[in-house]
Amino acid sequence: MSSAAEFPGSEAEPGNLADRPYPGGIPDATVARLPVYLRALYALAERGVTTVASDELARSAGVNSAKLRKDLSHLGSYGIRGVGYDVEYLVYQVSRALGLTQRWPVVIIGAGNLGRALANYGGFLNRGFRIEAVLDSDPSLVGRKLGSVIVRHVSELEALVAEHGIAIGVIAVPAGAAQAMCDRLVATGVTSILNFAPLVLNVPGGVDVRKVDLSIELQILAFHAQRRSTARFVQATDRAAAEA
Amino acid sequence: MSSAAEFPGSEAEPGNLADRPYPGGIPDATVARLPVYLRALYALAERGVTTVASDELARSAGVNSAKLRKDLSHLGSYGIRGVGYDVEYLVYQVSRALGLTQRWPVVIIGAGNLGRALANYGGFLNRGFRIEAVLDSDPSLVGRKLGSVIVRHVSELEALVAEHGIAIGVIAVPAGAAQAMCDRLVATGVTSILNFAPLVLNVPGGVDVRKVDLSIELQILAFHAQRRSTARFVQATDRAAAEA
DNA sequence: CGGACTTTGTGCATTCATTCACAATCGACG
DNA sequence: CGTCGATTGTGAATGAATGCACAAAGTCCG
Ligand SMILES: NC(=O)c1ccc[n+]([C@@H]2O[C@H](COP(=O)([O-])OP(=O)(O)OC[C@H]3O[C@@H](n4cnc5c(N)ncnc54)[C@H](O)[C@@H]3O)[C@@H](O)[C@H]2O)c1
Ligand SMILES: NC(=O)c1ccc[n+]([C@@H]2O[C@H](COP(=O)([O-])OP(=O)(O)OC[C@H]3O[C@@H](n4cnc5c(N)ncnc54)[C@H](O)[C@@H]3O)[C@@H](O)[C@H]2O)c1
C-alpha cells in the first residue's frame, strides 16, 4: 500500500490539509455512513478491484451517489475526475478519518448470552479493535475462556482499564446493573461506551454513549409493517368516503 | 409531488382523527423514539407512577421535552394541560401507534452465537413479539432446544412462514449467506427484516430492512474518541501557530 | 494534440428535524 | 366562581441533511 505521496491531496496544495485533515468537522450523518463505505471498499479490494466510481461504490453501499461524493468530500478531495477513486487509497483515507489507524482496546462487561457472542465474534476484531478483557460478576464464569481472552472478575475493571489503556467499554449486563457499570467506566476515564442494556444511560458531558437495542429495531419494523397492512384498508375507506 | 392523494383532505376535516389516528404519517425520527418513550413509561408504571409531565418523561428518555411533546402530538392529543400524561393511557396509545397491540411472529435464521443469544433472550418477547422458529443449516444444531423453541432446518423456512403467518425475519447467519436468506424471506412474503450480518442487503421496494451493526457502532465511537483525543493536540498546535 | 467522454466536487433548492417560546388550557384552591 | 400556577400543543425560527444538476477537471483515443 505504502506511500500516499503519488496521489492527489499530498502534492496538490490544499494548504495544511495533511496536518489537520478535516477542518470543518465531519457531519454526524456522514460519520455514520463512513463505516459502510469502508466495508464496501474492503469487499471491492478483495475482489481485486483497484478503482471505483462513486456510482458503483454508492450502489454497493446502498446510498445515493451524490451523497457518497459529498460525504467523501468532507475527508478531502481524493477522487480523480473521469476515473473514480483508488480503492486502496480510499480505504486508507476513510480508515484514517474514522481513527482506525490505531487499534482500540475494548472491554466487555458481562459474559452472559450476549457478552459471550460478542467475545467469540471475530468480525470486528480484525479491523481497528481488540477485546482486551471480558468481565463478569458471576464467580462461576470467571476463569472461563471466551474467544482469545479469559473472563475476569468485574472487580478488576479499574485495574484492567488502566493497564491496557482501554478507551471503549461495552455494556452487556442486565439493565439493573448497567448504570452502575457505566458510572464505574466513566469514573475510570472511559469516554466511549456501547450499551446493549435496554435503558437510557446517564453520563456526564464529554462521554459518548451509543446504544444497540434490538427491541427498538423490532418495534420500528412493527410500525412499518402495521402501516403497510392498514394501507389497503385505508385506501378502501377513502374510496368509500369519496363516494359518500 | 403531483399526487394530491398525499394530502388527504388537509384543511377540510380535522374531525375524523379518531377514525384515522395518524393522518399525515408519523415522521421517521419520531417513530424511532417512540419505543424509548414506551420503555420509560413502563418503568414509571412499575414504580407506581400514574401521571407524568413531559419534562420528567423527557428526562427519563434522554430527550428534550419540546421534542417529546411534538413527538406525542403526532399520535393525537393525549395530555392534560397543567397535569401531564396519564401513564397507563399513554402506554396504550404509544403501543397502538407502534402496532404492538398485536403480537408479531418472528423467525430467526441462524442459530450460531448470535442467534442463540437472541433466542434465549426473553427481553423482547414480553411485549409485542414472539419467536416462532429458529432455523439453521447445520444438521447438528437442528433439534436443539433454544429458549422456548426447537431449532429447525432452514429448508422448512417457507412452510413455517406460511404456517405461523410470520411477518418479521431476523438474519443471524454469516455475511456470505445473508443475501440468499433475505431473498428467500422476501420471496415468501416477509416484508420486515432485521439484519445482523455485516453487509447491505438488496431488497425490492416495499420491503423494510433494518440493520444492527456492532462494527459500525464501534467505529463511530472510535471516530469521536479520536476527535476528542486530538482536540488537545490541535489546541496546542493552534497556540504554537498563533505565536509564529 | 484536440475533442469527446466520464466522473468528481459542490452550489443551490428543498425537505426534514430540532428547538424555542408562548398562547391556550387545565386542575386546584380559596 | 374566578384567579393562579402548571403544563400542553404548536407556530415559527433555526439548523441539518438530502438530492439535483452542472461546471470543472480529468482521461482516453484517434
Ligand atoms: N441476549 C440478547 O439477545 C439480548 C438482546 C437485547 C438486549 N440484551 C441486553 O443485553 C444485556 C445482556 O444480555 P444477556 O442475554 O447476555 O444477559 P445474561 O443474563 O445472559 O448475561 C448477563 C451477564 O451479566 C453478568 N452480570 C450481572 N451483573 C453484573 C455486574 N454488575 N458486573 C458484571 N457482570 C454482571 C451476569 O453474571 C451474566 O453473566 C441485557 O441488558 C439484555 O437486556 C440482550
Ligand atoms: N456474534 C456476534 O457478536 C456478532 C456481532 C456482529 C455481527 N455478527 C454477525 O451476525 C451473524 C451471525 O453471527 P454469529 O456469531 O452467530 O455467527 P456463527 O458462525 O456463530 O453462526 C452462524 C450460524 O448460521 C448458520 N448458517 C450458515 N449458513 C446458513 C444458512 N444458509 N441458513 C441457515 N443457517 C445458516 C451456521 O450453521 C451457524 O450456526 C454474522 O453475519 C456475523 O457477522 C455477529
What would you note in describing this structure?
Helix content of chain A is 44%, strand content 16%. The first copy, chain A, has a 7-stranded mixed β-sheet. The longest helix of chain A has 30 residues. By secondary structure, chain A is α/β, with parallel strands linked by helices. Chain A folds into 3 domains: 97 residues, Winged helix-like DNA-binding domain superfamily/Winged helix DNA-binding domain (Arc Repressor Mutant, subunit A), CATH 1.10.10; 109 residues, Rossmann fold; 30 residues. The interface between A and B is large, with 67 and 69 residues. Bound molecules: nicotinamide-adenine-dinucleotide (2 copies). One nicotinamide-adenine-dinucleotide (NAD) sits at the interface of chains A and B. Chain A binds a DNA duplex (30 and 30 nucleotides) through helix 1, helix 3 and strand 2.
Task: List its traits.
DNA-binding; Rossmann fold; 244 residues; binds nicotinamide-adenine-dinucleotide; 3 domains; disordered N terminus; 3-stranded antiparallel beta sheet; 7-stranded mixed beta sheet; homodimer
* End-to-end distance of chain A: 71 Å
Just give the CATH class of the largest domain in chain A: Alpha Beta
Helix-strand string of chain A: HEHHEEHEHEEEHEHEEH
- Counting copies of identical and different chains, the oligomeric state is homodimer
